[in-house]
Amino acid sequence: MRKWLVVALCAATSAAVTPGAATASHTVVTGTPCSVYALQNDEVTGQSTEGVIEGGPVVAVSGTAEIPFVTLGCRLVVNGSTDWYQVASGDGTATLNPTRVAFSASPSDSVTMCTLVEVTTSHGTATYYYDAATATYSQSSGALCSGVQNGYSGPIPPAPFYPMGIIDITGYGSAWTYSLNNVFPPTGWTCTTGVLEVSCDPPPAPPGTVNNCRILTVRALNHGLGTVSGNARCLNGGSANATSAGPATSPTVGVSAPGGEFPWKCKVTVIQPIAAPWEVTCTISH
Questions:
Q1: Cis? peptide before 185, omega within 30° of 0
Q2: I need a labelling partner for 274 at 20 to 30 A (CA). Which of 68, 85, 112, 241 fits?
């Protein structure tokens, strides 16, 4: 069995996560599963030698006034045999802050990340597993762990780099125009347009990193009759939606779950367009 050296960057409660047989009463577990990315990859061999594990926040709701004690366990598995946990605990919620790990994983190795959540209430202790196939938490120990790079057996992906910016789309009836504002990096962006849609790509990420979508927000405001909807999304990631039924004086707002790949798209749907102004703003942020 491969041995792992783990050095915590931020304080976290350290304890093994042991699957429990007891069942917490009507407990619902939600939140962000564990993930891993590489800080160092050998450019010649593709060997990963150093990375970061993080997870959460995860939240457990007991269905009563009782606040459960939550322990989040992040288990990195290489070739089905590595068994190491990094954990964090808290009342009602738990977050594993970025934790540096030293390891060895070649491009031919199968690398997966498992997320376990141990919930303790007055009814006992139960372990919930994140099922990558359904993107939910269940008490089934057969839940599928998340495959790194969407199940691809290969090197751990490089550290994410998070471009930021705003796509402003304004219209009057069915006519529209757009502008790209407040971008980071400040230069090198490219955008194309479709039918009431703008698609933008940032410049290449810095060496050793990969561009990644983080948080998407969309705001829609229709000053006339009818409805105007906005959708912000990234490839293989979250989607944010907002619909404004006019006439309105304040925007509706939608926010996505984190994650995804570029291009970043901002799309507008206009129903029963009236000769009045409308606006849709899509923001990508860290």
A1: yes
A2: 241
**Residue of 279, 267, 264, 260 whose CA lies nearest to 183:** 264
Q: Locate tokens 């990631």: which residue?
A: 237
Task: For residue 51, give both structure tokens.
Answer: 């990375």
Separation of alpha carbons 176 and 267, rounded Å:
12
Question: The tokens of 190 are what?
Answer: 């490219």
For the stretch 145-168, pLDDT in tens is: 766 533 334 456 667 788 999 999
Preceding peptide of 57 cis, ω within 30°: yes
In this structure, are residues 91 and 70 in contact, taking their beta carbons and an 8 Å threshold?
yes
**Model pTM greater than 0.90?**
no
Q: How far is 97 from 111, CA to CA, in rounded Å?
A: 21
Helices (H), 2-74: none
- Token pair, residue 265, equals 């798209």
Integer Cα distance of 242 and 240 in angstroms: 7
Question: Alpha carbon of 26 to those of 70, 92, 120, 141: distances in Å?
Answer: 15, 14, 12, 18
Measured CA to CA in angstroms, residue 44 lies from 48, 60, 103, 107, 218 at distances of 11, 44, 17, 11, 42
Task: Give the whole-angstrom CA distance, residue 87 versus residue 285.
Answer: 28
Distance in angstroms (rounded) separating the CA atoms of residues 207 and 202: 14
Give the tokens for residue 225.
Answer: 């009759």
